[in-house]
């Protein structure tokens, strides 16, 4: 026991060290991944700003290059044709506030603003640049300054030289600082400390977002360590980390130089903001590590006391298993267990006694050897089946088996457990019952068919007597003959209805997919005369297509509609509505009328054969078999039929279901 306890403590220490190591590694990975993600995002934003600023500068460069190409030294200051060209060209570049041409000493000779011609711009950085770099062919972007028109602008300038390389003129476009401010504000990083700056080749801030009270616009960042490191790298783009040059906070910054103009884009965020999203995860890691350590220590302490409990529980499980296995063996049903692959793992003693084979013969697929060859397909898949199983005497018995899935402790499928009972006697009784029903139907058909012949003879001879005797018959005898003929005719109608009832299912048309709309149309055609006589109307919605017997469906609609016409209210034209509604696995068809209605106590009686709620001669008479035929048709198709009525003279609704 002491050795086991020492082993437990050893593994507890291993777990604690592992958890601490995993926590440290996960925390380090989180910081690295977050920094890498931030680097990619900041660099992507710097590319966006570079593209938009570069596009703007390139467009201005083309504008000034066009102005230089069109310029001629012979133009007098303020030349109208050249000024017209400048004005027209400036319209295609909305970023340019003005376009001016100055001499090397700063005197304006041409401008889109005529009031500036002749004035001297004074000390400008672009003049100093081209004096210091007389051979430069690059566009120069200045720091923000106040123009002659008393507004803050940024100048973009390009020089034109003569054949000897001397500067002839300097072409200058004034830009609004908001041009660059709009670009950087649209691309701000998502962090609260996110910032973007744009500087010219002298590292003077041209734009920064967000704006600051300290007004960093125009400040030089030439000596900021992060920018110095970027320039020293000699790369167009670099990632630097350190104290920022404007707010003095530790930042991660993506720097990118826009060539060939020497402008620098800086997109940054503070390290604290970048790592802030991972703090909850880091705290969670530490909390989880502490919980695991505490759990490991507690587990070692309680493990010793739980060992006895575990052994006791294991003994109880074994006893329970033996008990339930004994119960399964003694159950009077055939029990079989299969794994998830359909292989038999166990059969109970009832199975072995029934089949006469040892349980080992039933393992895997061996149990199928006792099943009739014609019934083996699909049994291994589980579910509910009836099949023939060989008894120990070699005869076959019909077995009704139900298999239900089993799951393990984790809820995963673990095969199935099947239980079967011998239904041989029940099946034999059912077969005899079906045979008896078939014989009864055949008897009813033959008997009713043969009974019509004597009735026809009675009716015929009664008519013959009436014609032969003529006036010799007394009124009483004529009344007797009329009673006899009427009885024979009613009996004949009863037999015809009985014949029709017996033919349902036995002599119906073969079942297939039937459009009930067409069946309703046929029923309406058969009842056309009765509908016309009573001024009846039928309103029917769309009906479904079902698997059924077409002539049965026609007969069903015909009887229900005829019933609605027959039991109409006096003086009220029959109005019949037919509708269909989809239900789970079935369609419900309803036939509603505005007739005399039905009392609730007669709901079941009206569907019985030869049952009438009214006198023999009321409502046109009848045999009382129509609704019985409807009930037999619906039930033979696997449905049911019922009636609802609000009461006398409130109409009735006959509804029936058919499988979808």
- CATH homology superfamily of one domain: Histidine kinase-like ATPase, C-terminal domain
Radius of gyration: 52 Å
Unreliable stretches: 613-621
Described by the principal axes of the CA atoms, the overall outline is: elongated
Largest pleated sheet: 6 strands, antiparallel
Keywords: Kinase, Membrane, Phosphoprotein, Transferase, Transmembrane, Transmembrane helix
InterPro entries: HATPase_C_sf, HATPase_dom, His_kinase_dom, HisK_dim/P_dom, HisK_dim/P_sf, PAC, PAS, PAS-assoc_C
GO molecular function, one term: phosphorelay sensor kinase activity
Protein name: histidine kinase
Question: What does it look like?
Answer:
The structure is a single chain. The chain is α+β, with helices and mostly antiparallel strands. It contains 15 helices and 23 strands. Strands 1, 2, 3, 4, 5 and 6 form a 6-stranded antiparallel β-sheet that branches. Strands 8-7-11-10-9 form a 5-stranded antiparallel β-sheet. It is an enzyme of class 2 (transferase). Its EC number is 2.7.13.3.
List keywords for this structure.
alpha+beta; six-stranded antiparallel sheet; single chain; Beta-Lactamase; 22% strand
């Amino acid at each position: 026991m002491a050795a086991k306890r020492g082993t437990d403590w050893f593994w507890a220490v291993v777990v604690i060290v592992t958890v601490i190591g995993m926590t440290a590694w996960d925390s380090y990975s989180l910081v690295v991944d977050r920094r890498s993600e931030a680097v990619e995002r900041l660099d992507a934003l710097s590319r966006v700003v570079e593209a938009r600023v570069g596009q703007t500068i390139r467009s201005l460069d083309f504008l000034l290059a066009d102005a230089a190409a069109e310029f001629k030294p012979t133009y007098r200051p303020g030349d109208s044709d050249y000024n017209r060209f400048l004005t027209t060209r400036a319209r295609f570049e909305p970023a340019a506030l003005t376009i001016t041409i100055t001499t090397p000493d700063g005197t304006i000779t041409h401008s889109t603003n005529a009031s500036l011609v002749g004035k001297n711009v004074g000390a400008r950085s672009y003049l100093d640049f081209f004096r210091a770099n007389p051979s430069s062919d690059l566009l120069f972007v200045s720091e923000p300054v106040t123009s002659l028109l008393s507004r803050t602008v940024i100048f973009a300038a390009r020089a034109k030289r003569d054949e000897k390389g001397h500067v002839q003129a300097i072409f200058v476009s004034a830009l609004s600082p908001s041009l660059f401010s709009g670009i950087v504000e649209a691309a701000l990083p998502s962090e609260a400390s996110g910032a973007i700056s744009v500087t010219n080749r002298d590292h003077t801030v041209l734009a920064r977002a967000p704006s600051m009270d300290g007004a960093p616009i125009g400040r030089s960042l030439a000596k900021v360590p992060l920018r110095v490191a970027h320039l020293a790298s000699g790369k167009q783009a670099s990632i630097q980390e350190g104290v920022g040059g404007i707010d003095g906070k530790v930042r991660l910054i993506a720097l990118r130089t826009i060539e060939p103009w020497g402008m620098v884009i800086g997109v940054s965020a503070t390290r604290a903001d970048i790592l802030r999203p991972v703090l909850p995860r880091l705290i969670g890691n530490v909390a989880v590590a502490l919980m695991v350590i505490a759990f490991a220590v507690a587990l070692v302490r309680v493990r010793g006391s739980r060992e006895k409990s575990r052994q006791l529980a294991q003994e109880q499980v074994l006893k329970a298993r033996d008990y339930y296995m004994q119960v399964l063996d003694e159950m009077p049903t055939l029990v079989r267990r299969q794994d998830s692959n359909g292989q038999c793992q166990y059969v109970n003693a009832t199975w072995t006694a029934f089949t006469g084979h040892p349980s080992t013969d039933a393992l895997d697929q061996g149990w199928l050897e006792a099943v009739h060859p014609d019934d083996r397909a699909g049994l291994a898949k589980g579910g509910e089946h009836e099949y023939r199983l060989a008894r120990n005497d070699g005869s076959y018995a019909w077995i009704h088996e139900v298999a239900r899935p089993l799951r393990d402790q984790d809820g995963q499928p673990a095969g199935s457990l099947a239980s079967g009972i011998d239904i041989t006697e029940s099946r034999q009784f059912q077969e005899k019952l079906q045979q008896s029903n078939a014989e009864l139907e055949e008897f009813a058909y033959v008997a009713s068919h043969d009974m019509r012949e004597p009735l026809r003879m009675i009716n015929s001879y009664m008519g013959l007597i009436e014609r032969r005797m003529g006036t010799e018959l007394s009124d009483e005898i004529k009344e007797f003959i009329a009673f006899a003929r009427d009885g024979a005719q009613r009996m004949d109608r009863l037999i015809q209805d009985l014949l029709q009832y017996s033919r349902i299912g036995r002599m119906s048309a073969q079942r297939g997919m039937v459009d009930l709309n067409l069946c309703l149309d046929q029923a309406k055609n058969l009842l056309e005369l009765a509908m016309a006589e009573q001024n009846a109307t039928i309103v029917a919605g769309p009906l479904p297509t079902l698997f059924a017997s077409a002539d049965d469906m026609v007969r069903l609609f015909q009887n229900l509609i005829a019933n609605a016409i027959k039991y109409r209210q006096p003086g009220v034209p029959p109005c019949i509505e037919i509708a269909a509604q989809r239900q789970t696995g079935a369609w419900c068809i309803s036939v509603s009328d505005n007739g005399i209605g039905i009392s609730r106590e007669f709901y079941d009686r009206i569907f019985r054969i030869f049952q009438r709620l009214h006198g023999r001669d009321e409502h046109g008479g009848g045999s009382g078999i129509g609704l019985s035929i409807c009930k037999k048709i619906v039930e033979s198709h696997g449905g049911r039929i019922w009636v609802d009525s609000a009461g006398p003279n409130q109409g009735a609704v006959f509804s029936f279901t058919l499988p979808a």
